[in-house]
């Protein structure tokens, strides 16, 4: 009897196990089928989004969400948020885009899905870039590349390289941008993704254009336009047309440039591309304002000047409004600068001042330079996120262990091993919690270190400013006295020529020291105020006065001034004198003895002939260009990158043993920009001399 009961129990147990196995097999098959459908929907949504068919992409994304939530598919839900992030980015809803990418990142880190994690990081970096948050964009995009490369996924690696190239382009590091684009291009060609090949060609063309290499730029843009047209990529066609229009504008083909700008604008408005529409509106406004005299020769546009200014005002206002709506900092800044020039030309100084102040505010918010403290914070933040990834992996391991434990419960019920398995799971749980506590303690320690470093950096900066301020202020009065008494002694006429020469040298050296002291005082007090005197200044007379006191004779240097006429500007005479004294004293300081310094003043009539830095310029016929060329040591490429920075040291050394604070050109650049002007330098390399150019609005 007991044997029969035993066999009956054994048979029931076997049948129960078979039922569990069959049910589990069917569940796995159904889950795999549902998972395939989720992935298919996600891929279709991505394909429609890349072809700019947003309505179809949005509909498929909602279907994806419904199916993923029904099946509790975490990866599917992550793919839903990933598509939403990219769609919101295209719609310029940056806040919603970042929120969606954040949800996707959290899921893909929990599931250790590296491929989709890289996509979400790329999307986050592009959205930060679109907002002008360049430091955060670079950090996230480098993370994306680091995640992509170990996977051997060329598509992800190429996308990351392209996005990093875009960031370097925005920071005007064009050689680095081209290098990353050229690394990405063969990867896209190998994948057969001609849409992105066209995109890369467009970006390379933009970089060559900014470097002034217009022939290579035009060739790449034309190749891009051909690919985009063949692919039916209307967005890409609009970008190529815009870039070809800009090249025509730079080469003087203004009628063709206007037509291409308008074709690009029509496509972008039709496709609801808000960010790109801002760009087209701004380009047309700028072209109408700067080239009205040439546009009057066009059969399509033949209004008087006032009508062209009104047209430029209309497009500039539309550009600023569109940029403000989507928080596009770059075009808010550019549009306001252009509006300040247009209002000034229309005789509306109060409106011009308001627009210029808005330009300054937008520019400062976009291009704040990162300090050493900021870089340290980014590094610690990067390490913190890596630790968070480790914590997420531990959490995932704990979740997997719970699933395994639940699966074993059925076997434990059948075989009576519940207590053993539960004890084992409990031990694993304690180990996971201990690991989590250890990671959290390390994270807290890292955050405390960041706060301590921040406080130390702030205290060091405050002490540096106080010391500089005290030293510079205390030096000003005795130096002024030395200059004054040396001058009075020399005027008595009681000294031999040799003694008079020594008094003159004392005066010159003291004046040089006083200029450096004033530079230090300005830097310590951060005298970057926009307040200044506004009066009519004879720039020719001012330069002659600066030349007389520059100390060139002591180094047996000749200074030649060539001016077509007496040119006048509106501004602060003391500030402009300080700016040109800094430039000319640099030329004297770095020139060997018995050389010549050439100064030339003329109307800036050769539009586009000089190197460009992307800043808006006044019309060619309303500018005065001052060039100061020496025959000194010249500049390296590295020198030119840091030429106008604060406390910078260049490779060139003063030829007479003079000292330098590294502040003169930093202050000079600020003064020139305060007068709505522009300053830059050109050099063919070491030993070939340097030419400084200063461009200021002309007052007739």
Write a structural description.
The protein has 700 residues and is mainly α. Helix content is 72%, strand content 6%. It has 24 helices and 7 strands. It has helices at residues 2-50, 54-70, 74-90, 94-110, 114-131, 134-148, 154-170, 174-191, 194-210, 214-231, 234-250, 254-270, 274-290, 292-295, 305-325, 329-345, 349-366, 372-415, 418-491, 497-525, 539-548, 573-589, 637-641, 664-674; strands at 535-538, 558-563, 568-571, 596-603, 623-629, 678-682, 691-697. The strands form 2 sheets. The protein has a 5-stranded mixed β-sheet with strand order 2-4-5-7-6, covered by helices on one side. Strands 1-3 form a two-stranded antiparallel ribbon. A hairpin with an 8-residue loop joins strand 6 (678-682) and strand 7. The protein is globular and about 120 Å long. Mean pLDDT is 78; it is low at 19-33, 299-304, 369-376 and 607-614.
Name the descriptors.
700 residues; mainly alpha; five-stranded mixed sheet; two-stranded antiparallel sheet; 24 helices; globular
């Amino acid at each position: 009897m007991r044997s029969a009961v035993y066999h009956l129990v054994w048979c029931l147990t076997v049948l129960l196990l078979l039922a569990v196995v069959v049910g589990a097999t069917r569940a796995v098959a159904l889950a795999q089928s549902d998972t395939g459908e989720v992935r298919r929907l996600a891929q279709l949504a991505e394909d429609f989004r890349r072809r700019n068919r947003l309505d179809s992409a949005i509909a498929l994304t909602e279907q994806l969400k419904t199916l993923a939530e029904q099946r509790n598919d975490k990866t599917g839900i992550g793919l839903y948020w990933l598509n939403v992030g990219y769609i919101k980015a295209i719609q310029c809803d940056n806040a919603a885009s970042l929120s969606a990418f954040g949800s996707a990142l959290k899921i893909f880190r929990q599931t250790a899905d590296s491929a989709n994690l890289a996509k979400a990081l790329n999307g986050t970096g592009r959205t930060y870039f679109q907002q002008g948050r360049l430091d955060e964009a670079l950090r996230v995009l480098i993370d994306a590349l680091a995640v992509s490369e170990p996977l051997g996924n060329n598509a992800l690696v190429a996308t990351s390289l392209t996005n990093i190239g875009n960031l370097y382009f925005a920071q005007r590091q064009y050689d680095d941008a081209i290098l990353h684009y050229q690394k990405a291009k063969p990867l896209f060609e190998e994948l057969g993704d001609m849409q992105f090949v066209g995109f890369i060609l467009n970006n390379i063309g933009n970089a060559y254009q900014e470097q002034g290499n217009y022939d290579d730029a035009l060739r790449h843009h034309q190749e891009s336009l051909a690919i985009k047209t063949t692919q039916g990529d209307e967005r890409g066609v609009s970008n190529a047309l815009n870039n070809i229009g800009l090249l025509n504008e730079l080469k003087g083909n203004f009628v063709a440039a206007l037509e291409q700008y308008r074709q690009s604008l029509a496509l972008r408005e039709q496709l609801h591309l808000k960010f790109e529409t801002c760009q087209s509106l701004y380009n047309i406004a700028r072209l109408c304002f700067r080239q009205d005299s040439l546009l009057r020769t066009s059969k399509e546009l033949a209004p008087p000047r006032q009508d062209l200014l009104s047209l430029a005002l209309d497009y500039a206002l539309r550009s600023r409004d569109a940029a403000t709506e989507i928080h596009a900092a770059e075009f808010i800044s550019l549009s306001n600068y252009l509006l300040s020039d247009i209002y000034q030309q229309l005789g509306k100084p109060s409106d011009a001042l308001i627009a210029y102040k808005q330009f300054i505010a937008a520019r400062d918010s976009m291009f704040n330079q990162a300090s050493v403290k900021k870089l340290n914070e980014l590094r610690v933040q990067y390490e913190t996120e890596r630790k968070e990834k480790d914590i997420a992996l531990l959490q995932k391991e704990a979740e997997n262990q719970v699933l395994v434990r639940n699966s074993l419960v059925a076997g434990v019920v059948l075989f009576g091993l519940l207590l053993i398995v539960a004890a084992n799971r409990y031990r694993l749980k304690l180990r996971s919690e201990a690991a989590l506590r250890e990671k959290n303690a390390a994270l807290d320690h890292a955050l405390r270190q960041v706060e301590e470093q921040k406080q130390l950096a702030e205290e060091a900066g405050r002490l540096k400013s106080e010391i500089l301020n005290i030293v510079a202020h205390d030096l000003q009065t005795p130096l002024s006295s030395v200059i004054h008494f040396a001058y009075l002694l020399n005027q008595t006429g009681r000294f031999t020529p040799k003694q008079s020469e020594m008094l003159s040298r004392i005066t010159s050296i003291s004046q040089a020291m006083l200029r450096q002291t004033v530079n230090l005082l300005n830097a310590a007090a951060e005298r970057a105020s926009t307040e200044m005197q506004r009066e009519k200044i004879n720039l020719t007379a001012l330069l002659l006065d600066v030349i007389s006191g520059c100390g060139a004779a002591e180094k047996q240097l000749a200074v030649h001034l060539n001016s077509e006429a007496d040119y006048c500007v509106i501004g602060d005479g003391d500030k402009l004198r300080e700016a040109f004294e800094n430039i000319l004293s640099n030329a004297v300081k770095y020139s060997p003895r018995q050389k010549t310094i050439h100064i030339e003043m003329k109307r800036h009539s050769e539009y586009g002939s000089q190197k460009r830095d992307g800043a808006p310029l006044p019309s060619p016929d309303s500018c005065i260009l001052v060039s100061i060329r020496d025959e000194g040591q010249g500049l390296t490429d590295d020198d030119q990158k840091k030429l106008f920075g604060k406390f910078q040291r260049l490779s060139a050394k003063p030829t007479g043993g003079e000292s330098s604070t590294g502040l003169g050109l930093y202050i000079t650049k600020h003064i020139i920009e305060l007068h709505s002007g522009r300053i830059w330098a050109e050099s063919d390399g070491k030993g070939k001399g340097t030419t400084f150019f200063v461009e200021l609005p002309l007052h007739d």
